[in-house]
Write a structure and sequence with these properties.
By secondary structure, the protein is mainly α. The protein is 55% helix and 7% strand.
Amino acid sequence: MIITVNPTAIAASSPLLYPSTNGAALSDLRGIRAAVEDTITLAGVRPLVVLDSRGPMKLIGLAELLAVNPSAATRMVARLVAVDMVDRQPNPGTRREVVIGLTPVGRQVVRGITERRRAEIADIVARMPESTRCGLVEALIACAEAGGEPPADVPPGDTAWF
């Protein structure tokens, strides 16, 4: 996974990394999100989407869901921590393990990518002949279910669907 970030864009939006205590800066993470989204790879998006849809989890659980070995998951997480998309917190149950979770920046990146992906797919489907749309939509739903993606009508971050 290669994650590169435009330093100028990050510097311009650095106050967004550490929002003020009144929460006003949380509503505008677009600058940092745009800077990161343009450079993140598909391999970098996968752990973000899993964490968004499943919630915080131990590294071993993330590795299993991504079908990678724990050392690969550790490297992925380290890269995502470096760009403030995920964080590591002590497991409240054992305190010997860490739990990986999305940061506000990571959550905004997932939202932006998901919104754009769904809009692009909707545009493509709208251009298809009506006679073939139904079959495609059914196939896309089956594909998303097989891939463990949350349904489109589930609010982001809601883990009750799985």
